[in-house]
Specification:
The protein is mostly helical and 215 residues long. The chain has a domain of 135 residues: Interleukin-34 (Growth Hormone, Chain: A, Up-down Bundle), CATH 1.20.1250. It contains nine helices and two strands, in the order ααβααααβααα. The protein is globular. One of its GO terms (molecular function) is macrophage colony-stimulating factor receptor binding.
């Protein structure tokens, strides 16, 4: 089933994104994900205005996780289902949020915001785990996804320098927001306007049609 609707976050750059067919999201997930979305609506203030211009942090290259990554995985990974992508999404962004928090001094004005966002993310992750039988998380991942998972969980000191990239905190949270809408689209559907959250074109026109503008 494809969920089509409108959304909240904007994307720079042009990509061709293939349609992503999404399985129904467990209803218990929607409340914690919407709580995350409430926090993300303030990301411009806390992740851009409170940082020096062009400030970047060091992240694993797999943590630059965009809509285009989801599309490529769907096209190139045989047998890939939505639950696997959702598991990977949680794995990616728990690391991203930790890295943002790590660079923030205790008295930085964005630290309380980021700590609260991480707490809400962990709450959603716990609900996600509880929403599926334990054996689901013991199943083998497709080889390409397992390779990504292994690289994300590798000790930093064992990673080659080529594994790292620099990104702005806001761009990381923009990606978090857009991919969340794509992978859990049923929680953010709009009955009045039907669009595909997994389409980059949706986010390019989002400034005029934001259902929840950033602040």
């Amino acid at each position: 089933m494809v969920q089509l609707s409108t959304a909240v976050c904007l994307l720079g750059g042009l990509f061709l994104i293939a349609p992503v067919l999404m399985a129904p999201t467990h209803s218990s997930m929607c409340t914690p994900l919407r709580t995350i979305n409430d926090s993300l609506s303030h990301r411009r203030r806390y992740m851009k205005h409170n940082f020096p211009i062009e400030y970047t942090i060091k992240v694993h290259n797999r943590e630059i996780f965009r809509l285009s990554n989801i599309s490529r995985m769907k096209l190139r990974t045989e047998g890939l289902n939505d639950l696997v992508l959702q598991r990977l999404w949680f794995q990616v962004y728990q690391g991203v949020l930790k890295k943002i928090l790590w660079v923030l001094p205790t008295r930085h004005p964005s630290r309380p915001y980021t700590a609260e966002l991480e707490r809400r993310f962990k709450d959603a992750q716990a609900v996600f785990m509880q929403s599926h039988p334990a054996e689901v998380f013991q199943e083998d991942l497709p080889e390409k996804i397992q390779d990504i998972w292994d690289s994300l969980t590798e000790k930093p000191e064992n990673m080659p320098e080529s594994s790292w990239r620099f990104a702005t905190p806001k761009s990381l949270l923009d990606n978090l927001c857009r991919t969340m809408y794509c992978l859990f689209s049923e929680c953010f559907s709009n009955a009045d306007v039907q669009e595909d959250y997994c389409e980059v074109s949706h986010w390019r026109k989002g400034r005029k049609k934001d259902i929840q503008p950033e602040s």
